[in-house]
Each structure stands twice: as C-alpha cells, then as structure tokens.
Amino acid sequence: MPLLPPEPVWIINNQTLEDYCQQWSALDAIALDTEFIRTDTFYPLPGLIQVGAGADVFLIDPLEISQWSPLAKLFENPNVIKVLHACSEDLEVFKLLTGTVPRPLFDTQLAAAFANLGFSMGYQALLKHILNIDLPKDETRSNWRQRPLTEAQIRYASLDVTHLLEVYQHLNQLLVQTPKKAWLDDECLSLTLNVLPYDPDNAWQDVKRAWQLRPQQLAVLKALCYFRETAAREEDVPRNRIIPKGSLWPLARFQPKAINALREIPDMRSSIIRHHGEQILDIINAASQIPAEQRPGSLPPPLPKNAKDWGKQIKALISQQAVELEIPLELLTPNKLTSPLLRSWLDNGHFSLPDTLTGWRRDIIGPPLINQLNAMEEKGH
C-alpha cells in the first residue's frame, strides 16, 4: 500500500505566501525542502519549495511567486528552527530566490552523523531507521519545472517534508543533553556562511598536477581558471561548457597560440573552440607575459614516501578519537587536514594545526592530536 502524505496546500501567489509566512513565524520549527533542475545551468533552477508546518504540507510554486521578502524574513527569524536534510544545494536555491538562507538551521543528515547513526545517511534510510517508514524515491530525476506536475511528483515532494519534523524531534532529543548539540549547531551555522561563494582567484589551486607547472605556466592556469569560473556564472552554464576540466592543465602547459593548436588539446570540443577559442588564446597570450614578480609561486609537490607512515599514524589517532567521541571518522576529520599537518612537520620539524581547522573540530581534535604527534616525533616515531 503506498505511503500517503496529507493533501498539500498550494501557494501560487505573493499574498498567500505572505499570509502563511506570518503564520509559520509563530512556530518553533518548520521543515523545508526544494526540488530543482541543474543539468544545463551553473545555478539550480527552482521547481518547487516544500514546507512542513505541524501536520500540514505546503507547496510553494516558484514559477508563480515574484515577491520573496516574506520568506526571507521568515528565514532570518531566530525563533523558528528550519529543518532540512542534506541541505547544501537547497541553500543555494534559497539564496538565489530570497537573497538569504534559513537560520537557525538543523540539518538532519548532520544530526544523524553526530548521533552516530551513520555518515551521510540518505533521507530514505534515516526515515526507515527512526520511524520505520519506507519512503519511495521514484521521482528524483523528473522535470520539476513542468506544469502541471504529475500526481507522483506531488506525492514524492510532499513526503519529503511530511515526517521531517518527527525526525528532527527524535534526533534533537538524542543530542540536546550532550556536547554534540553545540557541535551540530556550529556545523549547521557554518553551512549557511558560504553559500554560493564567489572566489575565482583561487580556482587554479584545485587543478590536478598544478604542482608540476612553472610559475609562468601557473600564471596562465590562474587566468584560465578565473575566466572559466566567471564566464560560467555570467552565462549560467556548467563550467565544462566554458573550458573542460581536463583541458586546463594542458592549456597552461603547452600554451597554444592558434585555433588549430587548440584542437590538439585534450577534451577541447569544437563547440567550445567556436564560442570561446579566440578568447582563450587571448587569455593565454596575456597571462604568459605577466612579469615574474606577479606570478603565483610554485605549488609544493606531493608528499614524499617517508610521510606516508605519519599519515597512517594521524589517521589512527583521529580514528581512536572518533571511537571515543562516538561519531563517524568522516565527520571528525575535515578535508585536507592530513596533508597540511605533514607539511608543517616537513617544513618545521614539528606538527602544528592548519588555520583551516576551525570551530569545534579545532577544539576537539587539536590539542590531543598535536601533543601525541609531537611526543611521538621526540621519541623518534
């Protein structure tokens, strides 16, 4: 027998949205979700916004709404907790529509990880685990911008928020009397602080094998990545429609000077050469002549083999901390922690925490990890 959500209330005009936002502002918590399309665009195209309030489900049609300030005001109301699951892309949709994001935020996927139920749990699995409810997932890839939506789409979208507040209450109860609740709050707040960041200056540092390039080549790489990032946003197309990811390194390395030479670059499709070829050549030419003192410094090479044993030690120490704290290792260990720790040891002969490790993790991981590593170093590993 199919799981049936309550009959949703449609919100398809500005006045109705304002009226309901005023009602929701009196609640302790609301559930939120979005449906969107992101196949041929840089930014997500909103198709639907779902709101769970008490036992009711509301569907906001973003194709019909033009005044988003009431929802923005609700998002910024500190007295209403906004409950979402795995919300990073939802936050982008909300930022684009309303200019702001929901705060305070309670992400049930993160909360499940802090409660040690599992890392990166899908909503379907979480609902099964907590409420023993089987949620169908049969409309994930459907066209959410079509009108009218099908009955199956409406049912699917409604179910995504029907039980979300129950899940929130259960998880909050598990965490509220523990230090983990403050860690969760810290983590959820950090999610809301860098939605749709715009920093094309640093995009070049993420290109694989960039460490193999000389400073003159890195100047070209940086200029190409800047253009790729800004043009993708301006044209609202995926980055690979501007310059394919696999073309960036060879373009910087070989610096072609003619359209025919671009055709020799891996992944450079004819459509890209037709639309952006001349511009790419101009960027390469200009960046290749940047004075030496203005070029980026060389990137450090991969860590040497003698650092691998230390990497294993770091992972083992953090794994032990995760077991003691009863949280998943993946939650405790942020990206790019091991490498900067090892580089600090290689450069200075002792371990120090990178500035990128902040918040609750720095407090929890930091002192014991650094003390143990430096003690091991003094004893000769």
From TrEMBL:
It is found in: Cytoplasm. SUPFAM superfamilies: HRDC-like (SSF47819), Ribonuclease H-like (SSF53098). GO terms for cellular component: cytoplasm. One of its GO terms (molecular function) is 3'-5' exonuclease activity. Its main location: cytoplasm. It comes from the Bacteria. GO terms for biological process: tRNA 3'-end processing. Residues 214-294 form the HRDC domain. The lineage of its organism: Bacteria, Pseudomonadati, Pseudomonadota, Gammaproteobacteria, Oceanospirillales. HAMAP family: RNase_D. Exonuclease involved in the 3' processing of various precursor tRNAs. Initiates hydrolysis at the 3'-terminus of an RNA molecule and releases 5'-mononucleotides. InterPro entries: 3'-5'_exonuclease_dom, HRDC-like_sf, HRDC_dom, HRDC_dom_sf, RNase_D, RNase_D-like, RNaseH-like_sf, RNaseH_sf. Its cofactor is a divalent metal cation. Keywords: Cytoplasm, Exonuclease, Hydrolase, Nuclease, tRNA processing. This is Ribonuclease D. PROSITE patterns: HRDC (PS50967). Belongs to the RNase D family. Pfam families: DNA_pol_A_exo1 (PF01612), HRDC (PF00570). It catalyses: Exonucleolytic cleavage that removes extra residues from the 3'-terminus of tRNA to produce 5'-mononucleotides. Its EC number is 3.1.13.5.
